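re: ur question from yesterday

yeah so i grabbed the chain u mentioned. its 192 aa long if i counted rite. heres the sequnce exactly as i have it in my notes:
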Amino acid sequence: MHDDIYQAALSLFDTRGYAEVTVDDICEAAGVSKATFFRYFDSKFGLVDEFNQRIAAKIDAVIDIETMSATECIRGATETLYQEWLNSAPQIRVLAREFVRAGTHITENLGDPMARGLIATLVDVIAEGQRRGEFDPQFDAALVAPLIVSAWTFAFVAWVDRRDHEAFHRSVHNLVELHIIGLTHNAPKPRA
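ran it thru and got these structure tokens back, copy pasting raw so excuse formatting
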């Protein structure tokens, strides 16, 4: 049922645009009641959260902090995110644009619920990189992780405006490399 509602919403967003689609429209297209819709999503915007959480799950499946360096994990997460956005259907991009339009609001709980999966994963990766001595321990992982998510977001916004795939790839990776350089700049040197 969850996927049926999600797919019906995506189809409507693709044909009519996010702003023009109501919860009633989604319910009608999915053949469910409003009560059923609200059992799975707290609002129409909850569908944007679903998009974000699906990307977070794909990133979690790609990275493995046990076998990869923290830097490899961040780069792998970035490439996964890039590929998901690049290869997504137009209706997914509508949701992603809505996510960007709404913005990410950092709170005491690692960030806006919209970015919680992405930020939580990055916090774990950065903290592990610090524990291993790969990253400088002076930085608070819970503050750096939202900055990386913001870098991803800024690269996405530039791509949506220009539709230049090569520039998008360069931007998203270069912005993340700035964070990696900062995290590794004063990292302790491994003992010989």
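noticed a couple things. Residues 88 and 135 are 33 Å apart (CA to CA). also Confidence is low (pLDDT under 50) at residues 104-111.
anyway ttyl
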